[in-house]
Amino acid sequence: MAAPPGLTMQSYPPSHTSSPGRHISTSYSSGAALGTTTPTGAASTTSTLRYPSTRKTIYDRNLNRSRNAELSRASFAFLFMEMVSYAHRRVKGIQDFEKRLNEQGYPLGLKLLDLLLYRSTPAGSSSSSSSTSTSGVASRPLRLLPLLTLLTTKLYPLLFSRPADSLEQSTTNPGEYMIIDNTPLTNQYISVPKEMNQLSVAAYIAGIIEGVCDGAGFECKASAHNTGTDVWPSRTVFLIKFEESVLERERELERQGIK
C-alpha cells in the first residue's frame, strides 16, 4: 500500500505469533485537531508497566489478605536449594558459606519486623479505615523479653506455622540467648556431605532473626549451630549475642521500671 503524501512508512519486525513472511499490519487515521496522521495498530513501547483493569497493583492490597496464606513447601524447597547452590559456588569454606546464607536472610528479617508490628496492632487486625488512628500505631519492643517473645511466638508462626520449641538464656553470659528448633525447615531439603558436617544451612534463619533484632534497635549477632540428638537429628540452636550497648540500655530501663 502506498504511503500518504508526506508520510514515511515504518518497517516493523515480523510477528512472533505469525508465519515468518507475515508482518504486523498498520493502519493510519487522520488527527482531526492537528491535521496529522498517527499510527493506531502499532503497540505502544513508551511504558512497560502493565496495570489490571481496576488500575490497582499489589501495593494496593490489604496486608491481612495473606495473613493465613501458606506457601507451597515444594516452592520453598526449590528456591532454597537454588540459593544454597548459588552460595556454594562462591565460597571457600564453611564459615564463608554460613556468612553468605546469613546475609541472604538478613534483609528479609528487616522487612518482616514491620509486617509483624502492623499485624499485632488493632489497626492491622482490621481492614477498616481505623488504621489511620493514632491508637493503632505499632510500637517496637523496648526490652529484651518482649523482643524474644516476638521472635518465638510471632515470627516463627509467621514463617513456619508453629512457635519455636524453646527459648533459653545462657548461664555464663547474660547477653546470650538461645532459640531452639528441633526440626528447622531449611534442614529438611538439603543433604550436607560428610566433609562439611559442621555446616548449618539454618544460618539463613539466623540471618532473619538478626535482621529482626537489628531493625528493632537491638544490635546482635545470630548464628546457627547443629546440636542433633538421636531423637532430633536436625536439632539446631540459634545463638543470639547482644551488643554491650543493648545490655546497658536494658539495665537502665529496668532501673526506671519500664517494661
Query: What CATH architecture do you see?
Result: 2-Layer Sandwich
Under the CATH scheme, which class?
Answer: Alpha Beta
Kindly estimate the percentage of residues that lie in beta strands according to DSSP. Answer: 5-15%
Structure class: alpha+beta
The averaged pLDDT comes out at: 79
Largest sheet strand order: 3-4-6-5
Number of helices: 5
Organism: Vermiconidia calcicola
Subcellular location: Endoplasmic reticulum; Golgi apparatus, cis-Golgi network
Keywords: Endoplasmic reticulum, ER-Golgi transport, Golgi apparatus, Transport
Family: Belongs to the TRAPP small subunits family. BET3 subfamily.
Tell me about this structure.
This protein is of the alpha+beta class. It has helices spanning 73-88, 94-119, 144-160, 203-215, 244-256; strands spanning 28-30, 37-39, 166-169, 176-181, 220-226, 236-242. Helix 2 crosses helix 4 (203-215). The radius of gyration is 28 Å and the shape is globular. The N and C termini lie far apart (81 Å).
